[in-house]
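Question (not urgent): is this output format expected?
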Amino acid sequence: MARPKKRLEGLVAATITPMTEHGEINISVIGQYVDYLVEEQGVTNVFVNGTTGEGLSLDISERQQVAEEWVKKGKNKLDQVVIHVGALSLKDSQKLAQHAAEIGANGIAVIAPFFLKPWNKDVLINFLKEVAAAAPTLPFYYYHIPALTGVKIRAEELLVGIQDKIPTFQGLKFSDTDLLDFGQCVDQNRQQQFTFLFGVDEQLLSALAMGATGAVGSTYNYLGKKTKQMLEAFQQNDFSSALNHQFHIQRFINFVVKLGFGVSQTKAIMSLVSGIPMGPPRLPLQKASREFTDNAKAKLKSLDFLPFADLNSGNLEACD
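Got this back:
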């Protein structure tokens, strides 16, 4: 059974794929991106080529290039680099899984295929089993995100006996608001020591109370430091402080959700906060509007969050 040298826990940044203004991947800034996450946000685990990274909008070669650069630049700096290798084609997914093992990734994750969908738990596990077998030395995680895949198979059901069929299975990235399903995943698998990574940033404290061992999210790219304060308060049983931190984070997320918040807007915010150019998203997504960016910038300042780059001057402005 594949076991990571260190359990995947705490915050995991769902990484953005930087692109040029012409829509080509821009791996030249990933080294700077790694340093920013570690030094400014205190985040040392990453989840590459997932939803935030536009993984399904990249071709196989691009996904491999991005994965290679994260592993290369993260060496001796990041604790774990998990590569999302899910694809509509089983063969593509297997190829990406094998590549992740060859480059020295610390784990792989897979979403359910979402065009020709698996119709029950057994069919889904058979698909996941074939992908995991292509990288038998790597820990394997299932990426549960039913709102995007349309695959409504409950994670609780999927986990029953899953290690018997997928020996490398280590845990779950749970990106759904169904806390009953999530809670039962934890409650019914206490002996297995699975990793339970929650994927809804604005509800993380609720998931921690139910036994989440960590979290994967886009906001940890730029709100990692603030979220770590919440984790530390929770671990110290200071629930009042933890709740205040969660509410503080929710104020920003609630604000941008009302403006229209997705991958495009995440790229704009990350460029703003970090000063690293993330570029536009790939079609069919559209670039975030200047109005959105200006409003997000004002909200970040009003909440006294992080230092970030002024998009007009290119200089860093401190807001704390």
